[in-house]
Automatic annotation (TrEMBL):
Domain Aldehyde oxidase/xanthine dehydrogenase a/b hammerhead: 23-127
Keyword terms: Molybdenum, Oxidoreductase
Name of this chain's protein: Xanthine dehydrogenase family protein molybdopterin-binding subunit
PANTHER family noted in UniProt: ALDEHYDE OXIDASE 1-RELATED (PTHR11908:SF132), XANTHINE DEHYDROGENASE (PTHR11908)
Protein's UniProt keywords contain Oxidoreductase: yes
InterPro entries: Ald_Oxase/Xan_DH_a/b, Ald_Oxase/Xan_DH_a/b_sf, Ald_Oxase/xanthine_DH-like, AldOxase/xan_DH_MoCoBD1, AldOxase/xan_DH_MoCoBD2, AldOxase/xan_DH_Mopterin-bd_sf
Gene source species: Sphaerisporangium aureirubrum
Length: 696
């Protein structure tokens, strides 16, 4: 009798690390490291621009438990020198309020915190500039935008086309600064052992962090190890090497002992990145039936004086809709603020709020149903590059979403439907996110006692990566799921891509498939018998990724929302949301739905709640805690569902999958804003949608 091993890919497999996470067995960054560490607590700048003139370190050295106090005059030197975001305690210059200017190391966290609180720092303050404006004299064109895209693009003559278009929408949309708030705050444990450095960190890229630390400290990468088996959420904030990581390593070097640094929730609003605010002007020129003639999308955003991060907010506009005349631009200004960073669906999330809001305005202006308008402007190929899409099922998502949501027969008139004291409306928006893949390496080992171990320096940030990689390995090896153990989260493992840009599973999974295929060949050569010392096979996907076919690869989706707006108070409630996505082969429906719904929930937060409020007088964010920085709670998410259409795409990777971590947030805020307009007749073009924007 032939025994067939059941396929696990496509099955709603429970998390292989679920028990460890709910019983406390899973160890996060701050819980790792040797016994008896000491603790470093940073001192943050109280001015937004200037210089540190004096730090009275001697005054705290006699405090209980204090071992050392550091500032730029006595801190170990970095190979990177001054002027970079990660060049911690290397210069007297203060580039933003909240920057680390000193640190105290003590036997206990409480002792270090108290000494840091009392450490006296003197400054020579200078006038600061922290406000983003579309007419700022310091605006400039960056060399590129994230990840390596051109800052500007131009096709045809959009100005002439707009001047001649029968229907024109010309509006400006604004999104505020937003801060990531993962459940696990950032934390690092640094240990020096001779010339070697081990860092336990909460990071979305162990190998990338290792390389950055090695460069900063002038060491070969082989002498640095970054360990991060579990990460309690990141949303992009744990991709960059932030100052607290460097501070921990500096402090450990200074005192010759293992050092722990935990970033408080307050500190995270200064030193671990944020989504840049944006000002976006979108112009759409169309025929009276809604068919686009011209699209322009101009973006203004901020960066810091110590680093450049240019968010690609107009990039999605380049591939969404057919129009012969089109242009996109990005402009940056260097302000006395912290450096922005990646935040879930960087670029696409704020950029598609603007584009999809403008498309809704065009639908109203043309008297065309918003779903039909998008279908009429479906391109046959990538409008920017001319490349064929590897697959594109946006229309299928729109049609299926409309059917499930009950869109047919929708009355387009705004402000005419009531349910008690609430005005009710519905809205739709499209979603997209690029399909990326980066070189990775993996090893597969057949253990002499039975079973297989797969190793790769992937990052498990709570998305279920360890589970899906186990499914991929089991199916490739043709063995049951419980015969495979996947080890991730350590830079000593074969190098994997970062867990960002929705490219983790595609990148790691390709390497795992190739390593397991190589293992199958090894087993065949041994007649199917594992030798006493076991067998090991490796794979490196650099050449495969480099030589992949040229296609425009993107995931697509459609977001539908129904809202109720209190006619008296302006309070807005999202009554129901539906997301329909086309993302290639869904490898695990359980973890996939979690990612889609999580992204949509974050989009709801973006639409109604999230806003980092800047105090221009002091150059700092006022609402720097979870009491004042509002995110969606269970009461805000009343009825939310994510589904997907079947999509086969042979041009992606061995699994046929597209990334799903980011696309759920894209378009969600626009769908809600469009629904608010349908409910009230009020068009809100600057997020979040607060009460004062609707009352009256």
């Amino acid at each position: 009798m032939t025994v067939t091993t059941p396929r696990s890919l496509g099955a709603p497999v429970e998390r292989v690390d679920g028990l460890a996470k709910v019983t406390g067995e899973a160890r996060y960054a701050y819980e790792n490291g040797p016994a008896s560490p000491v603790y470093a607590v940073p001192v943050q700048a109280t001015v937004a621009r200037g210089e540190v003139t004096r730090v009275d370190v001697d005054s705290v050295l006699t405090s209980p438990g204090v071992i050392a106090a550091m500032w730029c005059a006595n801190a170990p030197r970095l190979a990177a020198g001054e002027g970079a975001d990660a060049a911690v305690l290397q210069s007297r210059r203060v580039a933003y309020r909240g920057q680390y200017v000193a640190a105290v190391i003590a036997a206990t966290y409480e002792q270090a915190r108290e000494a840091a609180r009392t450490l006296h720092v003197e400054y020579s303050a200078e006038p600061h500039d922290v406000e983003l404006r579309a007419d700022h004299p310091g605006l400039y064109r960056p060399s590129h935008v994230n990840p390596a895209l051109p800052a500007d693009t131009l096709r045809g003559d959009p100005e002439a086309a707009l001047a001649a278009a029968p229907v024109v929408v010309d509006e400006t949309y604004r999104t505020p600064a937003e801060h990531h708030n993962p459940m696990e705050p950032h934390a690092t444990v640094a240990v020096w052992e001779g010339d070697g450095l081990t860092v336990y960190d909460s990071t979305q890229g162990p190998a990338a962090s290792r390389d950055r630390l090695a460069a900063l400290f002038g060491m070969p990468p082989a002498q640095v190890r970054v360990v991060s088996p579990y990460v309690g959420g990141g949303f992009g904030s744990k991709l960059a090497l932030h100052p607290h990581v460097v501070l921990a390593v500096l402090a450990a070097k200074q005192v010759g002992r293992p050092v722990k640094v935990a970033v408080t929730r307050h500190e995270m609003f200064s030193v671990t990145g944020y989504r840049t605010p944006t000002i976006q002007r979108v112009r759409l020129g169309a025929e009276r039936d809604g068919r686009l003639i011209a699209i322009t999308h101009d973006v203004y955003e901020q960066t810091s004086t110590v680093g450049e991060f240019a968010e690609q907010a107009a990039a999605a506009t380049r591939i969404m809709y057919a129009a012969p005349h089109r242009s996109t631009t990005h402009r940056l200004v260097r302000l006395d603020v912290p450096t922005p960073t990646w935040m879930r669906a960087p670029g696409e999330a704020p950029g598609m709020f603007a584009l999809e809001s403008a498309m809704d305005e065009l639908a109203v202006a043309c008297g065309v149903d918003p779903v039909e308008l998008r279908v009429r402007n479906e391109p046959a190929a990538d409008p920017e590059s001319g490349l064929p899409f590897s697959s594109r099922n946006l229309v299928a998502c729109l049609r299926e979403g409309a059917r499930r949501f009950g869109w047919a027969g929708r009355d387009p008139k705004p402000g005419v439907r009531r349910a008690g004291r609430f005005l009710v409306g519905t809205g739709v928006a499209a979603s997209t996110y690029p399909v990326l893949r980066r070189p990775s390496r993996a090893t597969a080992r057949a253990e002499p006692g039975g079973g297989f171990t797969v190793r790769i320096a992937a990052a498990e940030i709570g998305t279920g990566a360890r589970t899906v990689l186990t499914q991929i390995a089991a199916d490739t090896l043709g063995v049951p799921l419980d015969a495979v153990r996947v080890v991730v989260g350590d830079s000593a493992l074969p190098a994997g891509a970062i867990a960002g840009g929705s490219m983790g599973t595609a990148s790691w999974g390709t390497a795992v498939v190739r390593a397991c295929e190589a293992m199958n060949r090894e087993l065949t050569s041994w007649g199917g018998t594992v030798p006493p010392l076991g067998l090991e096979a490796s794979a490196d996907t650099a050449e495969e990724v480099k030589t992949q076919e040229e296609y425009s690869r993107h995931a697509f989706g459609a977001q539908f929302a129904e809202v109720g707006v209190d006619a008296a108070t302006g309070e807005t409630r999202v009554l129901r949301m539906l997301g329909v996505f086309a993302a290639g082969r869904i490898l695990n429906p359980r973890t996939a739905r979690s990612q889609f719904v999580g992204g949509m929930t974050m989009g709801l937060s973006m639409a109604l709640l999230e806003e980092s409020v800047l105090d221009t007088e002091f150059g700092d964010y006022l609402n720097n805690d979870l009491a004042q920085y509002h995110i969606a709670a269970c009461a805000d998410v009343r009825d939310i569902e994510a589904v997907w259409v079947e999509e086969e795409d042979p041009h992606l990777n061995p699994m046929g999958s597209k990334g799903i971590g980011e696309i759920g947030i894209v378009g969600a805020s626009a769908a809600i804003a469009n629904a608010v307009h349908h409910a009230t007749g009020v068009r809100v073009r600057d997020l979040p949608i607060r009460l004062d924007k609707l009352i009256g």
